Amino acid sequence: MLFLLTLHSIVRWLVILVALAAIVKLVIGLSQKQDYDKMTGGLVSAFAGLMDTQLLLGLMFFLWNGLAGVGFPRQRWEHLVIMLAAVIVAHLPAMWKKAEAQKRLRNTLAAVIGSLVLVVLGVSMLQPNRWLVIFGL
Questions:
Q1: pTM (2 d.p.)
Q2: N or C: which end of the chain has fewer CB within 10 A?
Q3: Phi, psi (5° rounding) for residue 98?
Q4: Which sign does the torsion angle of CA 129, 130, 131, 133 carry?
């Protein structure tokens, strides 16, 4: 079980790094009125794929740990539901493939940021508060 939790913890940092790179690329694209290029698409796809990986690892840990005796307390269900919503939001950019470049960049930026906001909210559902643990407070 510790292996799954550790892997889940490592992948979160990859999610954050790719999300930040995507946000920077999207903001540059919007401000310089660039096209939605392959690099942007690759970063956004990588972000969605890493979110899928996180969901899979999280579900495996949720079930394995829950069935091993920890159970399924409300805070874990809340975390799961919010993170599932974050994954769904991360996949919204696929809807805008045929949109004009600036609209596609803007909407994709909103989806990535929205997904990250949901991730922050979902992590804060866990007790003890994971943000306090992550930052050593």
A1: 0.89
A2: C
A3: -100, 5
A4: positive
